[in-house]
Amino acid sequence: MPKMKTKAAAKKRFTTTASGKFRMRPANKRHMLRRRSQKMKRQTRGSEIVKACDSILLRVYMPYHR
């Protein structure tokens, strides 16, 4: 059976932690930042852990990142 391919879009947007969870960057931090509040811009700094219900689908997209 051939190898499964990793989705290129998921590979660019998510990384795997040592415990097997997925890490992502928060949304809405790319452009039009003038109209966003300072609180919203501050809260979207850094990275977040993907929720468990969404990480099930990510395991299908990224089969070799365990």
Report on the architecture of this protein.
The chain is of the alpha+beta class. Helix content is 33%, strand content 12%. The protein has one domain: Irregular (Factor Xa Inhibitor), CATH 4.10.410. It has a three-stranded antiparallel sheet with strand order 1-2-3. The longest helix is centred in the C-terminal third of the chain and has 10 residues. The mean pLDDT is 94.
Record keyword descriptors for this entry:
Factor Xa Inhibitor, 33% helix, single chain, alpha+beta, three-stranded antiparallel β-sheet, 66 residues
Give the overall average pLDDT.
94
| Tally of alpha and pi helices | 3
Strand content: 5-15%
Count of spatially separate domains: 1
Question: In summary, what is this structure?
Answer:
This protein is an alpha+beta fold. The protein has three helices and three strands.
Topology (elements, then pairings):
Elements: H1 8-13, E1 14-16, E2 22-24, H2 38-43, E3 48-49, H3 52-61
Antiparallel strand pairs: 1-2, 2-3
